[in-house]
TrEMBL record:
A Pfam short name: Glyco_tran_WecG
Record protein name field: Exopolysaccharide biosynthesis WecB/TagA/CpsF family protein
Superkingdom in the source lineage: Bacteria
Keyword terms of this UniProt record: Glycosyltransferase, Transferase
UniProt-listed NCBIfam families: wecG_tagA_cpsF (TIGR00696)
GO molecular function, one term: hexosyltransferase activity
Signal peptide region: none
Naturally occurring in which organism (per UniProt): Actinoplanes octamycinicus
Length: 255
């Protein structure tokens, strides 16, 4: 997890786009962090990312509490997406949208162009909602490169989008951003919680109210597990041992 802010994160991403170099990014809230904790192989993949931002307030609190990071705000995936897209539009860096469904993309494209008329959208590609077939990752990479894109936004949901970003990073000389629900928010399919709920780390309660059947396990089980580990680490009862970053290939990942 990187102790970063919006300005620094945006500049690092845009710099990689300008220079044409691979750069894997994700924004992790409690669910994303705990997905890594529960799966050592996935943790090793996450630790190989170039930039991991504190998407949730509890993650920001942990950086401040355990490491004295002094962060005054989180770096929320949907907001980071807009800041990156805004700068990409200003610099003429084309963006590729990968993931979600075609109806969502059909709403997202005009929404982004409405906010940033100068934005160049090089291409869009909906998720197939299945595992990659042999050689398919190379075909996807070729389509993205042929489009002229300089940045890829990936909206496949956690942890599928992080695995996709990890797997595609060696194939693309550009940043890939795993941006979670940003596609749905900016397409107008999900509504952001009030600012006060975001400030006091209650966004989970808002989302649970919107999608209780899908999200109850994520929040009811993982939030207490995260807080207990944070307390144990702060009091010295438990010491985290980060997984060594990996470059092992993955096969059959979600596309």
């Amino acid at each position: 997890m990187d102790a970063t802010d919006y300005a620094s994160a945006t500049e690092r991403i845009i710099a990689a786009a300008r220079e044409g170099r691979p750069f894997a990014v994700t924004a992790l809230a409690v669910h994303g962090v705990m997905t890594g904790v529960q799966d050592p192989a996935h943790e090793a993949r996450l630790n190989s990312f170039d930039l991991v931002t504190p998407d949730g307030q509890p993650v920001r609190w942990a950086l401040n509490l355990l490491h004295g990071a002094g962060l005054t705000d989180r770096v929320y995936g949907p907001t980071l997406t807009l800041k990156v897209v805004e700068q990409a539009a200003a610099e003429g860096l084309p963006v590729y949208l990968y993931g979600s469904t075609q109806p969502t993309l059909d709403r997202l494209v005009p929404a982004l162009l409405g906010m940033f008329p100068a934005l160049k959208i090089a291409g869009v590609e909906a998720s197939k909602f299945r595992g990659a077939q042999p050689g398919e990752e190379a075909e996807i990479a070729e389509r993205i490169k042929a489009s002229g894109a300089r940045i890829v936004l990936v909206g496949l949901g956690c942890p599928r989008q992080e695995v996709f970003t990890y797997a595609m990073r060696p194939l693309l000389d550009m940043p890939l951003l795993a941006v979670g629900a940003a596609f749905d928010y900016h397409a107008g399919l999900l509504k952001n919680p009030p600012a006060w709920m975001q400030k006091y780390a209650l966004e989970w309660l808002w989302r649970l109210g919107l999608e209780p059947k899908r999200l109850w396990k994520r929040y009811v089980l993982l939030n207490p597990a995260y807080l207990s580990r944070l307390a144990a680490q702060k009091t010295g009862l438990w010491k985290a041992t980060p997984a060594t970053p990996t470059a092992e290939p993955v096969h059959g990942f979600a596309v």
